[in-house]
Automatic annotation (TrEMBL):
Membrane topology summary: Single-pass type I membrane protein
PANTHER family in UniProt: LOW QUALITY PROTEIN: TOLL-LIKE RECEPTOR 13-RELATED, TOLL-LIKE RECEPTOR
Any GO CC annotation of this UniProt entry: plasma membrane
Gene name of this polypeptide: LOC103059878
Membrane-spanning intervals of the chain: 887-907
Family note: Belongs to the Toll-like receptor family.
Annotated organism of origin: Python bivittatus
Domain annotation TIR: ranges: 938-1079
Chief location category: membrane
SMART domains given in the database record: LRR_BAC, LRR_SD22, LRR_TYP, LRRCT, TIR
Highest taxon of the lineage: Eukaryota
Entry protein name: Toll-like receptor 13
Subcellular location: Membrane
Length: 1102
């Protein structure tokens, strides 16, 4: 039993394999004869092809015991004396093939066919030798017959074996990735799948099948995935999940079934998932859950049933019975009543409950069933009317720490009342966003009065225009405050005077014009968000009290200039975002107090120059983003002092080749990531540069120089990369370069990833990759490449990923593939492959190679030859491309056996053979004499056979047209018969002397004895000469019953040419034309029934 057995694989995939064989096949998921790849998942599969019966299924079942038993089975087909002789003498003259016996035929078809041929060859030679010593000629003839049967059997095996499926590492519609430590991730999302693939690696850990069209999950879909830990099968069309589908995935911890069409959750649907911790079932159509649906999910912590049809809490009893549950999401389920009396019991560890986006009109807390609840989300959960709250005992929710009431249809007094009712809960997080609250509602004051332990307040999206002085007076523990998306114009100094513990405040998207914070009471503030306001300038003392500020977002305002004193007191600032402000220039260096700044964002401004020393005080800066400006000049020393800078983004500016000079990047000695995409760098030639721009960047790891404007980079100077001795990645796509000098990468010996996509590199020198022997990833997409011959001397033995999609590659050779010894992923989509034997190696390698995964191989199509255009490459049959030595041996064996049979046959029947020879010789001489007579020609073109009653028609119509118009020479009874010669002899001689015989059929003709003789003679000539010499003309319609006695006539009507005399005068010209064409036809069978020839008007008499 082996995976290569087609019948077993087909039974296994259909789920009809006997139970005793299933476990054995699972253990044999990897063929023993294939070497496992160290450090990479052992991934093998079988191609999906229709199963055809194994030819050996028709033979007796063979046991895999020994060579002798296998041979004895075949010997049993022979005569007993012959079998004994062959057993005794077989080994002396021809060595027995020890590795082949018929007992192996049922396990390996290809091996079996070869073994059969070896066996026949061996037995043939031993039989000839043995019989010559001890057997009779009769026994030899019997043996030859049986050998001939075995030869036919071996031929059958060989032909059947040509189209057998092969072990494959190419996955249709899926990609396999190794995460770490041999853990495999398989991505099959958005691939139009209609079922779960069965050909995936069995040791996969993560499987993504989302965004497909899978309608159901069947019991055996995940049978082989025993190591699966995370399964994402969201956004499909799953209506049904069979019971026990997850029985073999006991290690599964994460299951995502979001956005399907499930309606009911049965009691056995999730059996086997004893380690599941997260179950996502949102956006289905679930309306019923079996009480024991989650009974066996002992470790389940998170359930998401949002956006279903569970209209009441009574429908969710099964969910609340999960003892280990910590987090439950049931938002958007059309719940109208949230009452604890409908919850019989709740998990003791349930901490988070999301009931948002439900049209709730009643919240009734009458039992302590939710006493352990920490977070309750009721956001946007209300109908058009206000929600009625009934809390029997405030301490029923005494553990509640977070309450989300954003967007709820309640007026401020009602919200205040709810906050007051929860006085037994020490709320720390309260969200009151999007409630149209204004400062006159005094809700801030009331919240701080009743919930003095609150640490986070969210008033985002309300209608505040200001904050009253002392509004937060009682919120002394407040740490996070969000007042964004309001209408704040200004904040008085006393607004936050009591917020001594405030760490984060967001005032973004208001309409403030000055910087709104000047109070010294927020000295512990660490994060300040003022983005997208209408701030025009920053005062010198605006932030003098924010000594602990670490992140400051002031992007999206109208600040046009920055001075060194603007941020003078921000000694601990680590991140500053000044993007999208319209900054035109930075004239002065940033303040020396920013010596701890690590991230500076200046993107989307109007900077056109970077002046010398502007960043010299930012000694801790690691990330500098200057993208989307108008920078065209960089002064010497512009990056002076940035000794710790690691990432510099200069993309989408107006930098040209003239911007660079010898000291452009001086001071940025630690730079590891440089982004220059979408600028205007261009070189007129690839000659050596006097001042290579990156010479000082010896620590640089990543360089992005792709997508240069105007006409692109055009040329790649040979020493452009000089100094980049630590470079690991280069992104140089879309540069319009057509060639690269062989020494281009000689300055980057550590290069591991190279992207040259979207260029014009239709040919590449093999010397180009010589200096980069550590290269692991190479991208050459859409370059116009027509060959991969540069691989032959490229020294890319460490390459693991190669992409060359959208090129003109038609043939991949074995030599090219063999140079990529470490290749794990190959992507050659959208190339015009040739479906001929020149690609047979690549085709078989793609399917059989156990190491390299050819991505999307089943999408590769043929472009040549024309008959295969549009066909999928993998369907091309390569059986005709091989010179099979075994098949040649078979031909030799067959020829020898047949020759021996002929010799023996001739010896036994030699007298009969001599007689047959002379008989054939006589037949040949007779045919030769007839052909010689025919070569001498005919006396007439046609003999006319007609009855005297039809003579008037013949003389008035037929004879003038054929002889006068068409110049045919006709033979007539009264005119051309020889006088004194018997009539029958005249008839026979005239018919054989004429090229054709025309019979004029009428009722009188059928009643005439002489006419019958004439048509019989003509018929004999047809059978004798095998020529079409007869033309039948019907002068009148004759019913079938009149022809019944004339069997020969009826037979002629079915096979020979015949015409009807038309009654319509307008059809008479066409009749003569057809008759003339019938006279012109030759005598061969290919000319039969050809009278309906092309109508030629000028040949028709009128």
């Amino acid at each position: 039993m082996h995976w290569n057995d087609v019948a077993l694989i087909d039974q296994y995939q259909k789920g009809i394999l006997p139970d005793e064989l299933k476990d054995e096949l699972v253990r044999q998921s990897i063929p023993e004869d294939l070497e496992k790849t160290e450090g990479y998942p052992e991934v093998y599969a079988t191609s999906e092809v229709p199963h055809k019966p194994h030819p050996l299924e028709l033979l007796p079942v063979l046991t895999d015991e020994s060579q002798d038993k296998g041979d004895s089975l075949l010997l049993s087909m022979l005569d007993p004396p012959m079998a004994v002789a062959m057993q005794q003498e077989g080994g002396r003259h021809f060595p027995t093939p020890s590795s082949c016996s018929l007992s192996h035929l049922s396990t390996d078809l290809e091996h079996s066919s070869h073994c059969t041929i070896h066996w026949i060859t061996y037995r043939y030679f031993t039989a000839v030798t043995t019989i010559s010593d001890s057997q009779t000629l009769t026994e030899l003839l019997k043996t030859v017959k049986r050998m001939f049967f075995l030869t036919v059997l071996s031929m059958w095996l060989l032909v059947f074996n040509q189209d057998q499926i092969v072990t494959s590492y190419t996955f249709d519609n899926c990609e396999v990735h190794e995460i770490f430590q041999n853990k495999t991730k398989v991505l099959c999302y958005n691939r139009h799948l209609s079922e779960v693939p069965t050909y995936l690696p069995t040791k996969l850990v993560f499987l993504d099948l989302s965004q497909n069209s899978i309608p159901s999950l069947r019991k055996n879909d995940f049978k082989n995935f025993n190591y699966l830990q995370a399964l994402n099968i969201s956004q499909n069309k799953i209506r049904k999940i069979e019971d026990g589908v997850f029985i073999h995935t006991s290690h599964l911890e994460f299951l995502n079934l979001t956005a399907n069409q499930l309606q009911c959750l049965s009691s056995s649907m999730f059996d086997g998932l004893m380690n599941l911790t997260t179950l996502l079932l949102a956006s289905n159509k679930i309306y019923r859950i079996d009480p024991s649906a989650f009974a066996n999910l002992g470790k389940l912590k998170v359930i998401d049933l949002s956006s279903n049809r569970l209209y009441t809490l009574n429908a969710m009893h099964a969910v609340f019975n999960v003892e280990s549950l910590k987090e439950l999401h049931i938002k958007d389920n059309h719940l109208q009543d949230f009452s604890t009396k409908d919850i019989i019991s709740a998990p003791p560890l349930l901490h988070e409950l999301d009931v948002s986006y439900n049209p709730i009109f009643l919240i009734n807390i009458t039992t302590p069933v939710l006493h352990s609840l920490i977070s309750l989300d009721l956001s946007f959960s209300s109908a058009s009317a206000s929600i009625l709250w009934e809390i029997e005992d405030p301490c029923f929710l005494q553990g509640l720490k977070a309450l989300y009431l954003g967007g709820i249809a309640m007026k401020p007094p009602e919200i205040s009342k709810v906050i007051q009712m929860l006085n037994c809960s020490q709320l720390e997080i309260i969200h009151l966003n999007q409630l149209n609250i204004t400062e006159s509602d005094n809700l801030i004051e009331e919240v701080c009065q009743w919930q003095q332990h609150v640490q986070s307040l969210n008033f985002q999206g309300n209608m505040f225009t200001s904050v009253k002085a002392g509004a937060f007076e009682n919120c002394t523990n407040l740490k996070f405050l969000n007042m964004s998306f309001n209408r704040l114009k200004s904040l008085p100094m006393t607004s936050f005077q009591s917020l001594n513990l405030l760490h984060f405040i967001s005032l973004s998207n208001n309409i403030s014009t000055p910087v709104p914070i000047t109070t010294p009471n927020v000295s512990l503030l660490e994060s300040l968000d003022l983005c997208f306001n209408k701030i025009h300038n920053i005062s010198s003392d605006g932030f003098r009290h924010l000594n602990n500020l670490k992140t400051f977002y002031i992007n999206g305002n109208h600040i046009t200039s920055v001075h060194s004193h603007n941020f003078g007191n921000l000694n601990k600032l680590q991140e500053l975002n000044l993007g999208q402000n319209g900054l035109r220039t930075i004239k002065q260096p940033f303040s020396g107090s920013l010596n701890k700044l690590e991230v500076l964002v200046l993107r989307q401004n109007k900077l056109n120059i970077i002046k010398k020393g502007v960043f010299k005080n930012l000694s801790s800066l690691r990330f500098l983003n200057l993208a989307d400006n108008q920078i065209a000049a960089i002064e010497s020393g512009a990056f002076e002092g940035l000794s710790n800078l690691q990432t510099l983004i200069l993309g989408h500016n107006k930098i040209t080749e003239h911007t660079f000079h010898e000291e452009t990047f001086q001071g940025a000695s630690s730079l590891t990531d440089l982004d220059l995409f979408n600028n205007y760098i261009s070189y007129e030639s690839s000659d050596v540069l006097t001042n290579p721009p990156f010479k000082l960047l010896r620590s640089l790891n990543k360089l992005k120089i792709n997508s240069q404007g105007h006409d692109g980079l055009k040329n790649f100077p040979v020493n452009l990369l000089e100094g980049l001795e630590s470079l690991v990645q280069i992104h140089a796509g879309n540069l319009a370069i057509s060639s690269l000098e062989p020494m281009t990468f000689s300055f980057t010996p550590t290069l591991q990833e190279l992207d040259l996509s979207n260029n014009k590199l239709n040919s590449i020198s093999s010397m180009l990759f010589g200096p980069v022997s550590r290269l692991k990833e190479l991208h050459l997409n859409r370059n116009g490449l027509n060959s991969l011959s540069f691989f032959l001397h490229a020294n890319l033995s460490r390459l693991t990923l190669f992409r060359a999609t959208g090129n003109l590659i038609s043939v991949i050779t074995e030599e090219q593939i063999n140079t990529l010894t470490s290749l794990l992923f190959l992507d050659l989509r959208q190339n015009p492959f040739t479906c001929t034997c020149s690609n047979q190696m690549f085709l078989q390698w793609s399917l059989q190679n156990p190491k390299t995964q050819v991505l999307h191989f089943c999408q590769y199509t043929c472009a040549f030859p024309q008959k295969h255009r549009g066909d999928q490459l993998w369907t091309f049959k390569t059986s005709s491309c091989f010179i099979d030595c075994e098949f040649i041996l078979y031909i030799a064996n067959t020829t020898a056996v047949l020759s021996l049979m002929l010799v023996c046959f001739f010896y036994q029947w030699k007298l009969h053979m001599i007689y047959m020879f002379h008989l054939l010789l006589a037949y040949y001489v007779d045919k030769k004499q007839k052909r010689k007579g025919q070569d001498m020609g005919f006396d007439y073109d046609a003999f006319l056979s007609y009855n005297t009653h039809d003579e008037k028609w013949v003389m008035n119509y037929l004879l003038p047209v054929l002889e006068s118009q068409y110049c045919w020479k006709l033979c007539l009874h009264h005119r051309d018969f020889k006088p004194g010669q018997p009539i029958i002899e005249n008839i026979v001689d005239s018919i054989y002397a004429s090229r054709k015989t025309i019979c004029i059929i009428s009722r009188h003709y059928l009643e005439s004895e002489w006419c019958s003789k004439e048509i019989q003679v003509a018929s004999f000539r047809i059978f004798d000469d095998h020529k079409d010499v007869l033309v039948l003309i019907f002068l009148e319609d004759i019913p079938t019953e009149y022809l019944s006695p004339y069997h020969r006539m009826r037979k002629l009507l079915k096979t020979k040419t015949y015409l009807r005399w038309p009654q319509d005068e307008q059809e008479i010209p066409l009749f003569w034309h057809k008759l003339n064409m019938a006279m012109k036809t030759g005598d061969g069978k290919e000319d039969e029934n050809s009278v309906l020839a092309v109508f030629v008007p000028n040949e028709i008499p009128h």
